[in-house]
């Protein structure tokens, strides 16, 4: 760790990445660097624009470095104290996230995960056993408005904690967490520190596993899906219930009544909801099926927890993903 301002590298500047890049720049507590692919030119020339009722409107927020790849970031000679992953979580992508991050993760670099889903930490611990992994759930609405421009809406909150690495002392991990929390708060983020981040992530994935899967499989908003048959609610409850069972079999804490609460939260939205997975599918992009359905399913099978609904939804979404990736072969 440097004694001066920490160097932070963000990997992925879509909607969520843009919000947290802006928060870190606004904190004035760190140097903020970014690896950007499609929006490299815009970020390099104009900086980042964030429109937000919570953080205000900011144009031309400047990075200390904009790079096309992690190799380029590493070749700049900067050593990164934090590498923040705000890219999509695609567990089966080749090259893997760990492979991509290899050049920028050095001694003492803390990896921060701002990704959806569960099971994202394990491959990173395997690849970087001596690096701190901070894992977070992001609670915000955000969308990309154009190259280098994003909007933040609704509330914003970050729940973050250490995902403990066997080789490291809790004290060292805690110090790296504290500094990151301090910077994020200075930038205006509502940060909650959580000492059981795995339970937090699994509770969040109960929602995603159900609503992302049913909206994508049917290409309907949640209310339309639920209105189409009485069995739709039975399926929704079954999916959620299986994720709860798997999380508890892992020894994680899921509050009683979680499923009822999540059903109520969704059905109380008058016009129902689409989902990020549905957006991805419709846009022809790969979905985050592995971290949203795949990990719960595999953990269920490993622990002997029955997961028939997860098997059904996973296999359907995988087929839709395949269809997007193979439009010619997919013709009926
Ligand atoms: C992690 O640290 C241990 C002990 O210092 C060392 O033997 C090992 O090679 C390191 N592993 C990696 C991947 O850097």
Automatic annotation (TrEMBL):
Keyword match Cytoplasm: no
Gene Ontology CC terms, in alphabetical order: cytoplasm
InterPro entries (alphabetical): 6-PGluconate_DH-like_C_sf, 6PGD_dom2, ApbA, KPA_reductase, KPR-Related, KPR_N
GO molecular function per UniProt: 2-dehydropantoate 2-reductase activity
Any one GO BP annotation for this protein: pantothenate biosynthetic process
Catalysed transformations (reactions): (R)-pantoate + NADP(+) = 2-dehydropantoate + NADPH + H(+)
Keywords from the UniProt entry: NADP, Oxidoreductase
Domain Ketopantoate reductase C-terminal: 196-320
Enzyme Commission no: 1.1.1.169
Pfam families named among the record's database cross-references: ApbA, ApbA_C
Claim: Cell wall biogenesis/degradation is one of the keywords in the record: no
Domain Ketopantoate reductase N-terminal, first and last residues per copy: 9-161
Similarity comment: Belongs to the ketopantoate reductase family.
Function: Catalyzes the NADPH-dependent reduction of ketopantoate into pantoic acid.
Full protein name: 2-dehydropantoate 2-reductase
